[in-house]
Amino acid sequence: MSQLKDAILATTANGDKAFVPYIMAGDGGLEKLQSTISKLQELGVTAIEVGIPFTDPVADGPTIERAGERALANGTTLRKVIETLAGFASEIKVPLVAMTYLNPILAYGVEQFAQDASAAGIRGVIIPDMPLEEKDIIHPALQEANIALIQLVSLTSTPERVERLTKASEGFIYAVTVNGITGARSSFANELEEHFAKIQDYTDTPVLAGFGISSPDHVKSFGAFCSGVIVGSKIVDSLANDDWATIEELVLASKVATVR
Amino acid sequence: MTTTVKGRFGRFGGQFVPETLMTALQELEEAYDQYKNDEEFQNELKYYLKNYVGRETPLYFAERLTDYCGGAKIYLKREDLNHTGAHKINNALGQALLAKRMGKKKIVAETGAGQHGVATATACALLNLECIVYMGAEDVKRQALNVFRMELLGTKVVAVEKGSATLKDAVNEALRHWVTNIDDTHYILGSALGPHPFPTIVRDFQRVIGDETRAQILNLENRLPDAVVACVGGGSNAIGMFYPFVEDQDVALFGVEAAGKGVATGLHAAAIQGGQTGVLHGAFMYLLQDENGFVQEAHSISAGLDYPGVGPEHCHLHESGRAKFDTVTDDEALEGVKLLCRTEGILPALESAHAIYYASKLAKTMSPDEILVICLSGRGDKDVHTISEALGGNLS
């Protein structure tokens, strides 16, 4: 069973919504990673998406791209992130999801990556430049290590693709809320609710919304029609400014008392 | 569940892109499959290639270069004589016509040397399409003339300051732009790169180079050439030249990568000779990268070859042994420029000069009854500042 899926289902069973913050590993130095994860756990997040910096992050908007550049300037690599996580693995209480472009995994070695990542507390992987059609390059190794391979479903995915992606996704389904790259936005298309309902029809795997979610109101409104949210750019910005009050408000918005 | 792997050349290629692009790639593939055999579309393309681009381009016997080298008989395929000065217009026009048929009103493109940008801006002006071109800030500096040309043609040029501020970063931004404007925009990728179906589409629109060459040499010499030489950055002129000869096992194919300051220095753009396999911009290919899988900057005096990857079909031609890939340095390319200027009165693009230099050495090893064809992919007017600077002059 997927620990990731279980963690999300346990959250929603309480009536809460899953809250998954995205952090850029190495932004501010890898030595910050342990305290950041520990504080996020204390705030009651469901899982943590750990971004791995890459030289050519084509799916990322300016906020995450800049965080990635800062992390690269600090010498952050996939190998160093995994080593750092492994150093405090016993203190990691929530499932970690690595978000990395494919090439660093290929350079690491697919099998070795799966083993090391698993030992470091990574329970899911999101690879934004690897669509379902190409998954065989890594999926067997991830299965062996019990790491969920999460699929993104976009607004442009045809109904036939939505069905295939949804059924293939492990851990959760990452439903992209906008056409485009990551980053905060103020408006979303109206047809989103229907889109999410269609996705959820195909599966009992939880659906989380991501891309552009940046306020407690967004957290609540998306939470109303899916199992939870992923918040990236806003968290990355807040961490860079050491603004934990904003992060706390976002997490709180996912809790039962505040969801209407 | 079965997954289908599309657009492979051997183990290279594929579709390594964000999910948001998958539907657009599928639409493009379907549209292309429909129109590639559509007589009306092909006639329209032929009409413009003949009357607007100026095809067919000559296959010219370079007699003085031949005498100078003292070996094989050398022919030049004169892609430099195309409208806009290089082979890039073949593909830009083809894709712009395709975009129009697909109902797309806007075009996004990347450019390195600016030749593809100019070609795309030209095709968009001709066909009344709105055009935006991303170009690395370094290249904007190196190729100011082409930036001005694009702007004159009504295209918006956006300088990309990120990363190495060259072609790879321009591709990143063009891909981001496409992801964000997928509904009304077509991406005219300029080289035989990127996710399927781009490498195939670009090859098919460029194969006119090799198709014409094949017919011309048969007409002139009543036989096929012994060797064909082309420069390879992403590889569009080379694949266009090579493809119609791939089944002709007696025709040796030579791809020339840019060795920059020398492959051993690390400052080069030779993905096949000096890289490892990896994934960038949608394709599995040879790639300049470090041990962490981070993509490294390419280095070449020629902006058009300054890319860390190489088209997947070339990777396969290399691995299968059908084509041989070798390198030429910046300094050698400059020798190639001078050589062609002085023997034939033709100023080649710095990209093409890599092929000229390599072919001049290769020709010496061949006998006078053998035939060598060089793809002269573009003219060098755009490069005079760079060439002047490299040769110690001061034009600016």
Automatic annotation (TrEMBL), chain A:
Example GO molecular function: tryptophan synthase activity
Record field: catalytic activity: (1S,2R)-1-C-(indol-3-yl)glycerol 3-phosphate + L-serine = D-glyceraldehyde 3-phosphate + L-tryptophan + H2O
CDD domains per the UniProt record, alphabetical: Tryptophan_synthase_alpha
Pathway membership: Amino-acid biosynthesis; L-tryptophan biosynthesis; L-tryptophan from chorismate: step 5/5
Gene Ontology CC annotations of this record: cytosol
EC number: 4.2.1.20
Keyword annotations from UniProtKB, A to Z: Amino-acid biosynthesis, Aromatic amino acid biosynthesis, Lyase, Tryptophan biosynthesis
InterPro entries assigned to the protein according to its UniProt record, in alphabetical order: Aldolase_TIM, RibuloseP-bd_barrel, Trp_synthase_alpha_AS, Trp_synthase_suA
Record's keyword annotation contains Amino-acid biosynthesis: yes
Enzyme class, broadest EC rank: lyase
Active site: 49, 60
Domain of life: Bacteria
Function recorded in the entry: The alpha subunit is responsible for the aldol cleavage of indoleglycerol phosphate to indole and glyceraldehyde 3-phosphate.
NCBIfam families xrefs: trpA
HAMAP family referenced in this protein's UniProt entry, alphabetically: Trp_synth_alpha
Protein family (similarity comment): Belongs to the TrpA family.
Subunit structure: Tetramer of two alpha and two beta chains.
Protein name per Swiss-Prot or TrEMBL: Tryptophan synthase alpha chain
TrEMBL record, chain B:
Residue numbers carrying N6-(pyridoxal phosphate)lysine: 88
A cellular component term, taken from the record's GO annotations: cytoplasm
SUPFAM superfamilies named in the record: Tryptophan synthase beta subunit-like PLP-dependent enzymes (SSF53686)
Cofactors (names): pyridoxal 5'-phosphate
CDD domains assigned: Trp-synth_B (cd06446)
GO function term, MF aspect, one: tryptophan synthase activity
Enzyme class per UniProt: lyase
Enzyme Commission number(s) from the entry: 4.2.1.20
Keyword set includes Transcription: no
InterPro entries: Trp_synth_b_CS (IPR006653), Trp_synth_beta (IPR006654), Trp_synth_beta/beta-like (IPR023026), TrpB-like_PALP (IPR001926), TrpB-like_PALP_sf (IPR036052)
Residue span(s) of domain Tryptophan synthase beta chain-like PALP: 54-377
Pathway named in the protein's UniProt entry: Amino-acid biosynthesis; L-tryptophan biosynthesis; L-tryptophan from chorismate: step 5/5
NCBIfam families associated with the record: trpB
HAMAP family attached to this UniProt entry: Trp_synth_beta
Protein function: The beta subunit is responsible for the synthesis of L-tryptophan from indole and L-serine.
Protein name (record): Tryptophan synthase beta chain
Organism encoding this protein: Lysinibacillus antri
Lineage: Bacteria, Bacillati, Bacillota, Bacilli, Bacillales
